[in-house]
Amino acid sequence: MRSAGGVNIRVGIVACEIFKKEIEHLTEGDPDIVYREYLEFALHLNSANLREKVSEKVNALKGKVDAVFLGYGICQSLTGITSQLQVPTAMLQVDDCIGAFLTPPEYEREKKICTGTWFMSPGWAELGWDGVVKELRLDLDRLKARGYDSAYFMRKLFSGYSRCLFIDTGVPDRERYEALSKGFAQRLNLRHDCRSCTLVLLENALREAKGLAERSNAK
């Protein structure tokens, strides 16, 4: 993932924490990456807030980097955002993080294999039960105040699911993340499967960001 032609460039990364392990794996030791920031995963639950926060973080890098890799999918609210930012920016042109890992065709294929599939990447596995509770907008404090626990509502919400699919993205410590994924599946009585993927879409977006940086630097 190094720049071509030995050009001295500065690339910043602003990404969802779900991608942190994979991006760090891809860019380890890369001198072109001069800034990294990973934002809290649940920002997409408020679409306007996500767009505002991403814009704020990227625009704050103006003059400090030549280009930015935005580690986000469209996430329902980021369509067209790169044209509105003050720094040349490349992003993932997929709906969400699972599409970025699997690629859209493979994502659709897995959903056809089992329509009731919960997809679990290493980042999701580490966030675990509480992360999924937050993703599904269950308010733990309110539930506890009313005498409920999250397991009751999680079982209700997952009644239409039958499989948890762990996605091996090639990052270190796979066994640990797969074990966390299996534990999540067991807690909800889901079948557990696993598969590998490439990181080609992340690699392509990082390469695009470097190309933007080279062109910006040449002006």
Question: What would your notes on this structure say?
Answer:
With 219 residues, the chain is α/β, with parallel strands linked by helices. The protein has two domains: 4-98 and 199-218, Response regulator (Rossmann fold), CATH 3.40.50; 104-196, no CATH class. Helix content is 45%, strand content 17%. It is built from nine helices and seven strands. The protein has helices spanning 20-27, 47-59, 97-102, 104-113, 122-135, 140-145, 150-157, 174-187, 200-218; strands spanning 11-16, 33-39, 67-71, 89-91, 117-120, 163-168, 191-196. Strands 2-1-3-4 form a four-stranded parallel sheet, with helices on both faces. β6, α8 and β7 (191-196) form a beta-alpha-beta unit. The longest helix has 19 residues, at 200-218. The two termini are 22 Å apart.
Write a brief structural summary:
With 219 residues, the chain is α/β, with parallel strands linked by helices. It has 9 helices and 7 strands. The strands form 2 sheets. It has a 4-stranded parallel sheet with strand order 2-1-3-4, sandwiched between helices.
How far apart, in Å, are the first and last alpha carbons? 22 Å
* Tertiary shape: globular
Q: Looking at this structure, what is the CATH superfamily of the largest domain? A: Response regulator
Second CATH tier, the architecture of the largest domain: 3-Layer(aba) Sandwich
Q: What is the average of the pLDDT values?
A: 91
Query: What is the strand tally?
Result: 7
SS content category: alpha/beta
Individual helix count: 9
Number of domains: 2
CATH class of the largest domain: Alpha Beta
Helix percent reads 40-55%
Question: What's the assembly state of these chains?
Answer: single chain
Question: What is the alpha-carbon Rg in Å?
Answer: 19 Å
Low-confidence parts, pLDDT < 50 over ≥5 residues? none
The ordered H/E elements are EHEHEEHHEHHHEHEH
Largest sheet report: 4 strands, parallel
Give me the side-by-side strand order of the main sheet. Answer: 2-1-3-4
CATH topology label of the largest domain: Rossmann fold
